[in-house]
Amino acid sequence: MKRRILSFVAFAFTLVSVHAAQRPTPSIPTAERAIIQRRRIVLTRPPAIAKQFPNKKQAVVSYPVVSGLDPAVQRRVRSLFEFKNIFDYSLQEYREDSWLEEFDYVVNYNANSLLDITFHQTGSGAYPDDQSKHLLINLKDGRVVKAADAFDATKQSDLAAKINTKLQAELKDILKSLRESKSDPEDVRIASEAQEPLQYKIEDLDNFSISSKGVTFLYDAGYPHAIQAFEPVGRYFFSFAELKGFIKPDGPLGQFIR
């Protein structure tokens, strides 16, 4: 009797083990948003640099630490956020150079499996300067969202033309404002000449930011420092309803037009 009970227990255990082995491993659900913690450090420069630039002994760096994602996705996002991959400077290089004053970031959107973030750095060499880098990341795979992912390839030319209309309108407003304010005619001439080559093209479509209301296409005219006062802001907003005919239904922005 005892032997039968032991045999039955062994058989039952075998069935449970086989069933457990055949059961599929549960997948980690896609995160709708990332957990972002702000870290702040103060870089103290070497004595030689501090002596040469007494007003630049330190620089303040604030950066995002991302968690709460699928491990593979999280590794990709953290890699994108490495200093060297943002403005091509490592933290050590920032410390050993006198240019940087502040490094910071702004989270523009963090929901619906999309993370929209802009990094900023300010500093000075011969003159003060600042730079920005924007990233829109798909939290389902940890990759940067490009125009090819989000917009219908057959309509990108029309989309670029639509955005270019807003760019050209802004350029005209800049010249109009200069003339109405009775600026130096030489300034008007310089501003007008700088505008001549500016056109929003298909290759510019990759740089866009999102919000809960729509898409803002970003355009950098790349003016030199001496004439940056005449540079267009380069931010052109369209609601999701306006872009419905251009957005890929099965792409990362498709969820906003259903």
Structure characterization notes:
With 258 residues, the protein is an alpha+beta fold. The chain is 32% helix and 27% strand. It has helices at 2-22, 47-52, 71-80, 91-95, 147-150, 156-180, 185-195, and strands at 35-44, 58-67, 100-111, 114-124, 128-138, 143-144, 208-210, 214-218, 235-239. The strands form two sheets. It has a six-stranded mixed β-sheet with strand order 1-2-3-4-5-6, covered by helices on one side. Strands 7-8-9 form a three-stranded antiparallel β-sheet, covered by helices on one side. Helix 6 packs antiparallel against helix 7. The longest helix is centred in the middle third of the chain and has 25 residues, at 156-180.
Concise account of the structure shown:
By secondary structure, the chain is α+β, with helices and mostly antiparallel strands. The chain has helices at 2-22, 47-52, 71-80, 91-95, 147-150, 156-180, 185-195; strands spanning 35-44, 58-67, 100-111, 114-124, 128-138, 143-144, 208-210, 214-218, 235-239. Helix 6 runs antiparallel to helix 7.
- Tell me the name of the CATH homologous superfamily of the largest domain: Fervidobacterium nodosum Rt17-B1 like
Q: Order of SSEs, N→C?
A: HEHEHHEEEEHHHEEE
Extended strand count: 9
Q: And the CATH topology of the largest domain?
A: Heat Shock Protein 90
Round the Cα radius of gyration to an integer and report it.
26 Å
CATH architecture of the largest domain: 2-Layer Sandwich
Beta content comes to: 25-35%
Unreliable stretches covering 5 or more consecutive residues: 1-28
Oligomer: single chain
| N- and C-termini, Cα separation | 66 Å
Enumerate the strands of the largest sheet in spatial order, edge to edge or round the barrel.
1-2-3-4-5-6
Return the CATH class of the largest domain.
Alpha Beta
**Number of helical regions:** 7
Report the biggest beta sheet as strand number plus sense, adding barrel if it closes.
6 strands, mixed
Q: What class, by secondary structure content?
A: alpha+beta
* Global morphology: flat
Average pLDDT rating: 91
